[in-house]
## 1
Amino acid sequence: MDNNENLSTEQTPQENELSHSDKMIGIFTEPSNTFESIAKFPVRSIDWVLPVVIIFILVGLMRSLAMLNVDVVLQTKQKQIEMFDKMVSEGKMTQEQADKAIEGIDKQMEFMRGPIGWIINVVSTLIFGFIFFFIIAGIYFLLIKFILKGEGSYQHVLVASGLTSYISMIQVLIGGILTFLLGKIVMDTSVANFIELEQGSILKFFLSKIDPVSIWAYSVLAIGLAKLNRAQNTTAYFILVFTLWILGGLLFFFLGKIFPFLGGFAG
């Protein structure tokens, strides 16, 4: 009888796999323990597919809702006109081509404010969002695999990035609210939104990185990548994630100077 009691006391109960809702909550409450638990079980596609689908649908809807604000519409139109004028001055298009493009802005905006425009906006955001998501995840995977010698797979990077999207959704929602309150398109929750600076200035770029929600999300991503790759120390992963965030943003910032339509990716 005593032997049986001792045996049962020494046995460790088997850990149960967390449900997706538990993982979602854990990302906010205890990300380190949550990712440690996830690493013990096979990768679940739902852990990255669901949050990524939700966040890109949310982004598409917020963009469509923003176009219902008159001030936002005027600002967007003005930016496009300035872009065409700049392309004319740089010899990238003729004045006649620019005039035709400007004439079509109102029709395009009116169309995008309709139901078909909403659908196109959401679907296109999903498609290009997923492409961008897969490319960034691939870059993380290659750097982790060959520089940090991580043990995880590409799917592990997808899971870490996908689950972190739940935090980014807060940024999307706040950005949508600020867009209506400020009457201008707000893409993030950074200091740059509240300081009047020249569009496209390097100072504005660096102020856009002073963003509490982004810093929170990238910190959780670094923890997730470290835990899913069974790393003993997370420091290298923090350095990797934040370096890629800054350098990647700078790359798109300077490319945006050459190709204006890329400017929106600088964040």
## 2
Amino acid sequence: MNSITVEGVWKDYRLGIQRAGTQRLGEALRQALFTPSRRRHEDRIWALREIDFSVAQGEALGVIGRNGAGKSTLLKILSRVTPPTRGRLRYRGRLASLLEIGAGFHGELTGRENIYLNGAILGMRRSEIARDFDNIVAFSGVERFIDTPVKHYSSGMYMRLAFSVAAHLEGEILLVDEVLAVGDVEFQHKCLRRMGAVAGAGRTVVFVSHDLTAVQRLCSRAVLLDQGRIVCAGDTAKVVATYLSAGEPNSGQAWSLPAAPAESSASLLRLSLEDDDGRPRHVFRLFEAWTLRLSFEVRRTTRHFMCAFGLISPHAGAIATQWSKPRDVEPGLYEARYRWEAPALAAGHYVFALGLSTYERPIHFLEDQCRLTVSEATAAEDVVRGSGSGIVLLREDLEVRQVADLQLTSLSADTALR
């Protein structure tokens, strides 16, 4: 039995043009008289195209894709915030949405008052809020300040309380849009556990996020969107692997990077990964060294100039960051090189963050660039090693030996802390 069925959904937007029913008469006349028909046609953008999928009752579905792929538009349509241009949707059960955390919070009201206000905006009944009030406060961790106006809260406290209210929404269907990246790391883990409990309780969950680790932990199935279309759907691990490998160049090519705005003093140009023979590649074996080669252009004389790269794992976030030493540079073309030898990366997919900056300000920064793939296939004489635990592999063997006796000493907590 399906909780959500999406059939042939399309959604378009017109740049700079309001839809009928939302314009004043003068605006509508001005648009009709002075906007060329060709421009009106060309300014139509299809945010979603022919979207078809269903979510079974009790299933957790992840929705992933790059910025602008149509993820948030899809969730707004599912939440009935905006209607589809074409197609239809069917639901079975009460719908609850976590789209805009903190919507309706009023700075002059206390945390206690805002729980009731925000809960009502999100569709909770007063009896439900009263019943879950203590759990909401305890989850947020702001008990001491619950009767303080939220204008005095730190941004972290504000977001913790707002998420706590949203996380206690009741409904057979829960829609979640990129709301787990709130608060500190401990609270983020708490949010993930809460969402996992919701998914494990038999409620249907649609989860949109850039956090691929969270998607894989929470969702058994996923869909990948690109330019408003579903590229693939199915097992979450396979869909994530497709997303990470999308856009990889063939062996022997380098990645051309999006240029910085014309007014920027420098711009990243391209990135390549090379083996020890200088051949560009993007797939390497376990324990195989590789060299990063980053090209960039300096357009104006710049003081304290630096370039950097970060290596990122979709499962564990940033692994390493390396900066060049600051120096004064003149206009021209430059190249930065870095050889990666140790530690050895575990099998999987990785991406890069790249940046140009000075001491004072960033110049050009790009995320989610390129793909480095580390293969489980090692040299022929080696044992094939599997991945799944950790990010790096250690070269030394784990020594195991038999002993005649074990001398175990128990330490008290106080002793262990000294």
